[in-house]
Batch of 2 targets.
Target 1
Amino acid sequence: MSQVERESRREERRVTLNLMRNLTLREIRAQYKRTFLGRVWSLINPLAQIAVYSIVFGLLFQLPVAPGTNSGLEVFPLWIGVGVIVWGFISGSVAAGMSSMLDNAGLLTKVYFPRSVLPVSSVLSSSFNFGIELLVLLAVMALVGGPLVLLYAPLLVPLLVLTFAFVLGISMVLSVASIYFRDLRHLWSIFSQVWMYASGVLFSVELVRERQEAFAADGVDLPLVAIFQANPAERFIEAYRNILYDFAVPTWDIWVTLLIWSAASLIVGKLVFDRLARDIVEEI
Amino acid sequence: MTAAVDVDHVSKSFRVYRDRNQSIKQTLLSGRRAVYDRFEALKDVSFEVPEGSTFGLLGRNGSGKSTLLKCMARILNPDSGSITTRGRVAAMLEVGSGFHPELSGRENVYLNGSILGMTRQELDRKFDQIVAFSGVERFIDQPVKNYSSGMYVRLGFSVAIHVEPDVLLVDEVLAVGDMEFQEKCMDKFAQFRREGRTVIVVSHGIEQMRTFCDHAAWLDNGVLQDVGVASDIVDEYADSGHAVTAGPGGGVRHGSGEVQFTRLSLVDEHGDEVSEARAGAPATFRLSFEASERIERPVFGVQLHTVDGMHLWSLHGRDSGFVPEAVERGSGSVDVRVEHLPFAPGAYTISATAQDEHRTHMYDSLQHAGHFTVLGGGFRTSGGMLALDGSLLDLRQG
Ligand SMILES: Nc1ncnc2c1ncn2[C@@H]1O[C@H](COP(=O)(O)OP(=O)(O)OP(=O)(O)O)[C@@H](O)[C@H]1O
Ligand SMILES: [Mg+2]
């Protein structure tokens, strides 16, 4: 490879990073430029969800939730709150990421740039919002449960990176797939409803374990807990709850599981994307 | 001389869908995603664009010019072959260069600029220049979806040239801008040329291409016909455009041929063919034709020229309020009546055209196939082309 080629590679990388930054900032800015009411609205949505779920599942159903390991917290709305916000990020950023190609069809057909910039910057801007929500959550936890949580807070950084990679991989696959299949966005919103219930946003693993034991008492051996925990979203939410609700370090097997899921998602995402995005312009 | 763009055996085909399922539901129901044919838009095209040249791409609609430009801009990937470009490439492809309709002009300039490789600082520095060149200052903070197509192009083009690309690709955009903007662009291209940058343009403005480009390539149906010095290529292309054949009476004809003129002549009041008319006297021109099928609402036209080719007069049916419902299959004729022929004595030719109702399609055009002579008559002339109903009179003094 010649000097010239190496230099043009470097130039291209610079342009790509610059573009990614601009697109991300554009989206973040667009969200913050929204009207006051719009801004409040976007806060109301998770708050309303937390309130409704707390009343239904906490108050009416009295779902069992183990008290926070180190924090001793027994505040159901906070426990639900972590789940709602983490799940909101996973499903919301995939939904936004998968639309990123179709929404920018005008750009794709008129200018060249590495196509992956679109889903990446979409997920980046969702992550930025998620980061802010995590900070708010952290502040609330510190107020209610004591400052101990701040000791574990730095763990959120690697966890956020893993979540980002996991979500990005899925978004990349779906962003090109949704160009071939236009109803994919619709299907995703249905699927993500189902996935939410399967991910223990609203009830804890205790409930699943109780059922499993009840079945076992009847002589039926069903590995319900294992199945429940095979769901990567459940593992992610669990890890965030470990840190923010229990004030504890997630166990190493959680870390390993998350690492494997994230790496797999990202690798598959990139492979599929590179293969399909090449001629995507002709399909738009 | 090195090549700014090297097109090496490039082929590109598209899928042309006959049955396409764009949803999972339909795909599952019909059991397949799509049925398609391949359409070859570029077939083994090779040429080099010399560095610093202004290079024109010519060809009829659908000949693959835009496809080739998109391959150069890396928006499309060739199926086989390769395209190598040197330096920074900026493209202005068709209307709009990838603007986001909801964003304001300002935001789009920044977004587009960064896509084309400008840094934030570079953009800050050049922003005013970009807006000034585009001339859309007043609308710069409005969403671009409210722009007129000309404004859209002006802003996009302005960004593209301020990127200071080494290779600038321009597709048909000049046609949308107004005169003033076109001139501005021409100046800018000239400046690019002085600075040794390469410009590749697609345009249907043949004359513009001739004066403006130094090299050109001509594509037809995805096949490279010729490449070389612009004026030669433009001539070749222009000649090929009208498949001209020899017609009766030494005339030349072109057109699709559903109607063909058989004879263009001057006739007297009895309908007999004559070869002479008198200046100022009535004259009737008969356009005889043969229709190979029924043609609805044809528009006939006549043109008179001097023998050395000066165009004197034309009239067609639309302007004369004469558009017959149809001509049937078979032969026929149309007469053109002039009450007082105001031509000076001399030799003239008759040409005729038959077009569709909207005058967008040419059935037949038979040029210079009829001949007649004008002799001195009631209208006198001492020189010039015309003989008018004039006289000298009325001397006044004191
Ligand atoms: N995405 C696509 N899918 C299918 N066919 C395509 C696609 N893009 C272009 N084509 C076909 O390829 C051929 C060449 O198109 P192209 O746009 O390159 O023509 P052009 O020379 O630019 O014509 P014009 O002078 O009208 O701009 C056309 O027949 C067109 O229908
Ligand atoms: Mg074109």
Target 2
Amino acid sequence: MREPVSIGLPAVPGPDLQELMGAVARGDSDAFAGVYDRVAGPVLGLVRSVLRDPAQAEEVTQEVLVEVWRRAAHFQPEKGSAMAWIMTMAHRRAVDRVRSAQAATDREEKAALLARTPAFDEVTEQVEARLEREQVRRCLRTLTERQRESVTLAYYRGLTYREVAELLALPLGTVKTRLRDGLIRMRDCLGVSA
Amino acid sequence: MTTVDLHTLTGAYAVHALGDDERDAFERHLAVCEPCAQEVRELAATASRLGLAVATTPSPALRERVLEQITTVRQEPPRVPRQGRGAGAVRSGRGLSRFVLAACLAAAVGFGGVAVWQHGEARDAQRRAEQAQDRSERLAEVLASGDARVISNELPGGATATVVVSLEQGRAAFLASDMPPPPEGKVYQLWFDHEGTMRPAGLMDPGARDTAMLMEGPLDGASGMGITVEPPGGSTEPTSEPVAAMPFGV
Ligand SMILES: [Zn+2]
């Protein structure tokens, strides 16, 4: 069974994110402040998980939020939620940064990634964020260990699937399949529709 | 990379795990494959949930910096969708219309259909299935090819015809939507145009209003294609005026 999608966290009173994005697209900077309050925490958390360097993470987060302002008119609500649009942008930016910075990361450092679990250990006050975290964790547990490994390395660490394959000594096709199957299982568990 | 492979890249694409070349190739595929595009939307939304789970609390200073910076940043205007659909309009990339997407679906059904065929008893049915499979794979390959050139044309009577040409693969695909049925007892025949000399390139299914087919035979330097109405089984050279002629512009 699919639960309704709740993706507008953290909970901040007032109009919802989609409405705010409409106003931002028309140049409303007050509405942008509202968008900031709803998305800055998730964006920073995600970017930091990929970059791991707090100063760089803040820098990229700032870039992402300014990009949200700049490109607000390109957001198409019929193609998905504003949160998904912004988080996708954030992930893309973080990944671009990590790949340009460490074009030649040595294998050892990558191997160290294996030992780390995603950064779920942040202290966040918002109840909604905590609930979201619990739900995602619960759903991650429904993946096979192999799927979980591939998904978290690619998403939280920003590795390409080739890097994941190399790291896990797996054929490329296997990693592709695991990424897709893992995300599909997450989608169904979280009840995401788009 | 075959198209079967391409369809499995949705997950890797949604988490930005493709290299640049593969990403570009897959984005071209997404432009013509609605099932993949839909799956990507869902998996990207799913991935963003993973991101929400690691939310943290930013410093008040960051908020100030961002809100200050946007006062100096000009916003981009909304993108105006391109309308150019005139005769021979060349389009590429995103925004291909419904019937191109239908073509991808047709190809996908083709793959899925093989299992059914393989349970068929007649040996020749199996052979036909293999040929169909081969054709639909090649069709999908042309649609997804890196150098695909898309020529679209509105035909008299409101039908839309599109040719996807891949020089790299030396093949062309033909797609049509809302084709009026051919005159009683006739078929539409496709032709490759070599400076006015027409080479047969296959027959449209007379019962189909929407079609997606691989044009028969290699491009071989053809400069365009044409469609004529012919007797059943087709002709070796056109016996009627073309209902459409589409230069490839290459
Ligand atoms: Zn596809």
